[in-house]
Amino acid sequence: MTVAVAAGNARREWRKRLARCTRLLRPVLPAVVLLGGWELGAVYLFDASLFGQPSAIIERCIRYAGETRIWYDAWVTFSEIVAGYAIGVVVGGLLGYLVAISDGIARVVEPYVLILNAVPKVAIAPLLIVIFGIGMASKVAIVASMVFFLMFYAVFVGLRTIEADFIYQARIMGVSRLGEIRFVVLPAIMPNVLVGMKSSAASAVIGAVIGEIIAAQAGLGYFILDASGAFNVNDVWVGVIYLMLLLFVMTGVIGAIERHVLRWLPKRRIG
Amino acid sequence: MAREALDMTDAPILIRNVRKVFPDADGNPGVVALETIDLEIPAHSFVSFLGPSGCGKTTLLRMIAGIEQPSEGEIICKGRAVTRINTHVAYVPQGRGLFPWMTLRTNIEFPLRIARVPPRERGRRVAEWTRKVGLDGFEESYPWQLSGGMEKRGALARALIGDLDIVLMDEPFGPLDAQTRLMLQGDLLRLWSEKRNIVVFVTHDLVEAVALSDIVVILSRRPGRIKKTIRVPIARPRNVLEIFHAEHFNDVYDEVRETMHEELSVVQ
């Protein structure tokens, strides 16, 4: 009797453990199928020199990690992104703020922002390289031009939709002009600012890579261009993977900032 | 209230011949929200503005706060015409009571911080007021972590902590359930009785107006005019839960109800 119960318990325990394992593994499954299929296809079906081969890509990723070249390229791209991103966020946010609070400034600035936003940034990238040279400055300019508009509108919309009662409440308490910005306006638009920062991070990476592919002497975009010029498809993939890692780091940092700055937001989900 | 005009001009709030017209979408004068409002609010009184929605009672309150300006006439608060934001009052707006990005403590402390009260004194008063409204232990919570009633009690504490002579409240208990409302009305009367500052209270709830106030000002439908001013002689301290049994309650309630009823029946 007790033996049977114990055996039943053990079996249930084992089944539970199995269920937990499959639950953890389920999200990994598509990746395994995809990479496995790709690997098998590269060996048996199609030309690996056109599509690359996962095992070789992973092997190269690890090998490059031990060398300085790719880290130097990653560093160059990273610096371009950070500098351009910072300029775009600050200038775009500031201008969005000024346009939102002052009708006088809005009348002058807003039409120009509207027109310039219609310019495809990729199309003027060659122009920026002519102006700023093939070094980092041109890439910083491209990144900044892409981040600028996203931040401009994020801050602008944030200010236009701010709950006026919050401002009146603070003013009735006798808050100073500066205190109003610090204690009410900035915190209230922070959700919009962070949406702008998050959505422009991916654009920033795109901007830097486009610049490097057009003309550069270093950077991950240049690395990719170099590899594809040598018909080294696996190395193109390596460059792409390092770029993805870069974006992960950026979104990770922005996410951490968001969790801290917006800790006052309700933690709720719809659905 | 009989208008004892001249000898009462030291009343802390004087509303003189106020008219308010809101411009329409094209900027032309459109809706007349308030018409010839004449009112004196004496010191230490709890006054309610009661009326159907859209009668301009909130607009009148916002004009006392200086958020809106009268189109004609003037509002005088403590001897000075209100021509800009009125920093001599505390104001509890409709809807959300607290800043959602500040903890309860920072919220309640905020008026003192603005007034440059030294930190030690601030800490003492915040502790005192969180206790008074029964929110001790929740100091580090953000507003979304509090229930609607708790957030309102926080807003009450923030409005009263500055010890101002005039407190304006715009349907502060509007969205709450009946139970919580009664609790908070009781809390408000208890806290008010300590200091007896002026409270100007906007509501569309008849019982609430009678239960809390010394004076009920009934406004007509748009354009809002003062339909009647009714004194509430119910003795204090009042028990909000037992207000139906209080002496004079029925008489005052009937008078208010009839006035309101006339006003509502005009619609048909």
Explain the layout of strands and helices.
The complex is a heterodimer of chains A (271) and B (268).
Chain A: H1 2-25, H2 29-45, H3 48-51, H4 54-65, H5 69-101, H6 103-117, H7 121-132, H8 136-160, H9 164-172, H10 177-214, H11 220-229, H12 233-261
Helix pairs in contact in A: 4-12, 5-6, 5-8, 5-10, 5-11, 7-8, 7-10, 8-10, 10-11, 10-12, 11-12
Chain B: E1 13-23, E2 29-41, E3 46-50, H1 57-64, E4 72-77, E5 80-81, E6 89-92, H2 104-114, H3 119-132, H4 148-160, E7 166-170, H5 178-195, E8 198-203, H6 206-212, E9 215-219, E10 226-231, H7 249-265
Parallel strand pairs in B: 3-8, 3-9, 6-7, 7-8
Antiparallel strand pairs in B: 1-2, 1-4, 4-5, 9-10
In short:
The complex is a heterodimer of chains A (271) and B (268). With 271 residues, chain A is an all-alpha fold.
Mean pLDDT of chain A: 91
Beta-strand level of the residues of chain B, as a percent range? 15-25%
- Number of DSSP helical runs of chain A: 12
Count of extended strands of chain A: 0
Query: Structural class of the helix and strand makeup of chain B?
Result: alpha/beta
N-end to C-end Cα span of chain B: 29 Å
Largest interface in this structure? A-B, 22 and 26 residues
Class of secondary structure makeup of chain A: mainly alpha
Number of helices of chain B: 7
